[in-house]
Structures are given as structure tokens and as C-alpha cells.
């Protein structure tokens, strides 16, 4: 949550119930749980109200309302700034080593299933999107798979 302290709070000081890092952490937890809309985030937080009040030591014993979540996501934060903060956190946390994204794709070749067999010849390809190169093409025959 301390990483969110680097995000500039665009709100006026009057009427703030939740510190921005706390608010962003609650929204992030809901997003990680699969909630995508402000209304579903608000519902998810309400269902866990007691846990959040305890976890974040909330003064008013309430979780953010739907309007608070909407305002936070649309007006309070600058998306690029939040993305930069999260990016720095992930870079620091996970070493910042250059990673290589690889896409795997497997197919059973049409017309290769012999009578009496359940599977045919399979192709497996590993593709590197950054370089646009297929790294390997492996063929496997049903008899060799056993």
C-alpha cells in the first residue's frame, strides 16, 4: 500500500474519508477478485466491510460508496501516473529482469487420426511475439505419446 502514496491525490482536503492509498488498495483487491465495474467493486467491498474496517483501521466503519469509487477512478487519479507507480513496484518486486513472452499453440492435424486410435498427430508451436518468430514446431505421434 505504501507504493500508492506516490500517486498524486487530486482531491480537495475537505471531506476526504479515505486516504488515497487505502482507497486504491481496496479497489485493486476488488479488481484482482474479478470485479470490473464500479458498481460491482462497491458491492464486493460491502460484502467484506468488517474485514476492510479492521484491515485498514477505517474511522467511519464503512467502505467506499459507489460514487466515491466512480470519482476516484474518473477524476481523482491520473491513470498514467498510477500505471507508472504499479510498473515500478512490479519491476522492483520481481527483479526487473527482461522477460520473454512466449505464446504456445497446439493443434491436432486434420486427417491424422487412424482408425482405432483416439488421437492423431499433434503440432506444438512456441511463438515469440516481439520477434515474430516461431521458436519450435514439435510433432508428436499418438504411439510415441504412450
Explain this structure to me?
The chain is of the alpha+beta class. It has two domains: 2-93, no CATH class; 103-138, no CATH class. 42% of the residues lie in helices and 14% in strands. The chain is built from six helices and three strands, in the order αααααβββα. The chain has helices at residues 20-32, 38-47, 49-56, 66-76, 79-93, 142-145; strands spanning 103-108, 122-128, 133-140. Strands 1-2-3 form a three-stranded antiparallel beta sheet. The longest helix is centred in the middle third of the chain and has 15 residues, at 79-93. The chain is elongated and about 75 Å long. The termini are far apart. The model has no long low-confidence stretch (mean pLDDT 81).
What features would you highlight for this structure?
146 residues, 42% helix, 2 domains, alpha+beta, 6 helices, three-stranded antiparallel sheet
